[in-house]
Amino acid sequence: MSSTLFSTTSLDFSVRVFTLANNIKSMLSNLELNRAKVMGYGASAKGISLLNYCGISNKYIHSIVDETPEKQGKWTPGSKIPIVKFDNFE
Question: What tens digit of pLDDT does each residue of 38-68 get?
């Protein structure tokens, strides 16, 4: 019985994640069509994992602001979004 509960819980979770990813991509696609400039705030590992799972690239996000000097001037792995200083926030 516990394996059935686990399977249902896992399936529910995967459906929610898939739906969320599609909603994010749809929103960013609409913003891009309207020529909106989208920037991120904070280049955390969790955020970058989300970008890569969703297949979001620098086509949709102009840059990511992060105050960590070691991250500035670099790009996010996979999605290739530039990481910039807060001074570059426009």
Answer: 999 999 999 999 999 999 999 999 999 999 9
The answer to whether 88 touches 39, Cβ cutoff 8 Å, is: no
For residues 35, 39, 64, 59, the Cα torsion angle rounded to the nearest 10 degrees is: -20
Cβ-count burial 32-53 (b if 16+ within 10 Å, e if not)? eeeeeeeebeebeeeebebbee
Strands (E), the chain: 39-41, 63-65, 83-84
Q: If you average pLDDT over residues 4-20, what whole number do you get? A: 84
pTM: 0.79
With tokens 């297949």, the residue in question is: 55
